[in-house]
Amino acid sequence: MSSTIIVGVTAAPAARRAVDWAVARAAERGQTVELVGVVGGAIGAVGEESVLNDAVDQTRSLLSEEAARVAERGVQVTTRVGRGNPVAWLIEASADADLLVIGSDYKGPGSGPARGAHGLRIAAAAKCPVVVVPDLDFEGRSGVLVGVDGSEISEAAVRFAAAEADRLREPLLAVTVWTPLEAPRNLGWYPEEYLENMRLLAEESLALSLAGTRQDYPDLEIVTRVERGYPSLIINELAASARLAVIGTHGRGALARFLLGSISQEVLARLATVTAVVR
């Protein structure tokens, strides 16, 4: 596997946060960083070439400034400037990367609209895990949260989260969210036996999902939570105090379902912390 972290760089403040996050990880893991800036939007209009060349020059200058900051941390860094569709560029670049890191200008609840479709499309189609860094202050936060639903992709998310928690020397909070069967005729009423069995199944699934992690990281503090409700709401609520949240792109478990375009998309749309999307 490649030991390179690719970072999508723009002039937005969140992009600098993304670079800083990637550099901190690369420094601890001995990885290299590649900064990628993409100039898009060209349509072939008359006189466009000079505008495009200026934009490329500005992007190259921006990458050089960021590369100097990265080098000061003792991390090996390269830069690349592309022309075309930024989403397609980053997705293609991800095929040769260990990790792709992008920024988000979303500043949390009450700050305006949720992040746009570009980041969601990158997270959905990238060939490696994607970390999305929002423009938030993470001072005082602790812990790595991972959503667990018993699927194979969920297991990959657990492995990623455990490795990050171990690297950061933070506790791992593993969360399974279960939701009762949707049945309008019940009008919100369910037999107690059914609810209790759902809870027990969720607890059993979570325990099985973490069995290998406890063996691989015997010194890692692992906290478990089983919650009833809607997955994305609970995950983002808990993630608001975490340093990192980890989710799968989709899942096929009978409990919390991380379906691409559904739960994972909703988590990314309302980012509460730095969030890794694992496939």
TrEMBL record:
Belongs to the universal stress protein A family. Residues 1-134, 144-279 form the UspA domain. PANTHER family: STRESS RESPONSE PROTEIN NHAX (PTHR46268), UNIVERSAL STRESS PROTEIN UP12 (PTHR46268:SF6). InterPro entries: Rossmann-like_a/b/a_fold (IPR014729), Universal_stress_UspA (IPR006015), UspA (IPR006016). It comes from the Bacteria. This is Nucleotide-binding universal stress UspA family protein. It comes from Microbacterium immunditiarum. It holds the Pfam family Usp. The lineage of its organism: Bacteria, Bacillati, Actinomycetota, Actinomycetes, Micrococcales.
